[in-house]
Amino acid sequence: MSASLVHAIHSDFQQRFGYEPMLVRAPGRVNLIGEHTDYNGGFVLPAAVDKEMIFAVGLNGGTAIRLVAHDLSETFELASPAEVSLSDTHWANYLLGVVAQLQQREVEIQGFDCVFGGTIPIGAGMSSSAAVECGLAFALNHLLGAGLDKMELAHVAQKAEHTYAGVKCGIMDQFASLFGRDGQVVRLDCRSLDYAYFPFDTKASRIVLCNSGVKHSLASSAYNTRRQECERGVAVLQQHYPAVQSLRDATLEQLEAHRAELGDVVFRRCSYVVKENLRVEAACRHLEAGDLAAFGQEMYASHAGLRDDYEVSCEELDVLVEAAKAAPGVFGSRMMGGGFGGCTINLVAPQHVDEFIASVSAAYQQKLGLKLETYQTTIVGGVGAVPVVVTG
Ligand code: GAF
């Protein structure tokens, strides 16, 4: 955790509002494998990482809601919780969406102040939005004594994203931010919400993210379209196999048998999802066996599926994955998150990390003329309160 960031957010709050806030840290996430499976009732393997949002939040004793985006030096104010609705201020909507969701759950919102800022790169596919939602949900739950458990908070945050950010996301990002555990990845069954932690051995490999720097403006609409295509696939299969409630239940044989009826696009989207679920299960077995080479092969296959069948990759991400394949000490590489830009996630042998970064950066510059930003991430615990920093 960045002590200087905590200090900056804390002082900003005190200077503006003159009283002592609660401090909360909400991490971003990586996902080792299992992309676009969460909203299909499937499996994911994320972890919370050391890129984070820090919040200072306090009840102000009145009715006003005062929000401050520390990094942008922007403020947003409402006279009372009754005025909460979708706003024209993009960043405020992530917070207002959380308030609206708490209200829907009959939590009585009192006036509060919130200053937040962080180190999660925006649009890099590391879920800065989920961190923003989860951080405020956690703080308000605590300050208002609402008594929601972590899974309920994940649903509050997910619904905020649906209703106020317009992205019909699954539960992975909010779950990872809230349930992350130091040094461990977590396999989540997005249907039953059962989960299991797996130790991530940093002596054997490191997680390096390569940020393509591409932020696709159509990402949220394309994301929602993918979700609809999967739902269409389920609707077709259900006519033949009533037990299929989501793509989690479907098999490749069933898809093949109704290929013409599904149509080429829906067939490819659904095949990708069914295969990706199988890959997550295989990847977890490889992780338990300590077989990183086999794990990495699942990652490459995941990327190929996202590129060719799910069609959510882009040239920059493909170049980064190919460059990773050619670099020394790499177990696996693939695009991460919703797609159309953002980062690739790479598993790299610790002794080769520097060489890997140099090699992929050079290839990115040479092939596309672009400068690469990379992050060596550490797996950390999920959302939680942080002690107030005492300064001299
Ligand atoms: C985004 C969404 F928010 C997640 O729910 C998930 O679907 C992911 O894209 C793709 O796996 O991060």
TrEMBL record:
Every GHMP kinase C-terminal domain range: 287-364
| One MF term in the entry's GO annotations | galactokinase activity
Domain called GHMP kinase N-terminal: residue spans: 93-181
**What is the top-level taxon of the source organism?**
Bacteria
Alphabetized InterPro entries for the sequence: Galactokinase (IPR000705), Galactokinase_CS (IPR019741), GalKase_N (IPR019539), GHMP_kinase_C_dom (IPR013750), GHMP_kinase_C_sf (IPR036554), GHMP_kinase_N_dom (IPR006204), GHMP_knse_ATP-bd_CS (IPR006203), Mevalonate/galactokinase (IPR006206)
- Which portions of this protein are annotated as coiled-coil regions? none
E.C. number, please? 2.7.1.6
Describe the location of the Galactokinase N-terminal domain by residue ranges: 12-58
Which top-level enzyme class is recorded in the Swiss-Prot or TrEMBL entry? Answer: transferase
Under Pfam families, the record lists: GalKase_gal_bdg, GHMP_kinases_C, GHMP_kinases_N
For this UniProt record, give its keywords in alphabetical order, as a comma-separated list.
ATP-binding, Carbohydrate metabolism, Galactose metabolism, Kinase, Nucleotide-binding, Transferase
**PROSITE patterns (UniProt xref):** GALACTOKINASE, GHMP_KINASES_ATP
The UniProt entry's sequence similarity note says:
Belongs to the GHMP kinase family. GalK subfamily.
The name under which this protein is listed is Galactokinase
Q: Which organism is it from?
A: Hymenobacter jeongseonensis
Its ancestry begins with: Bacteria, Pseudomonadati, Bacteroidota, Cytophagia, Cytophagales
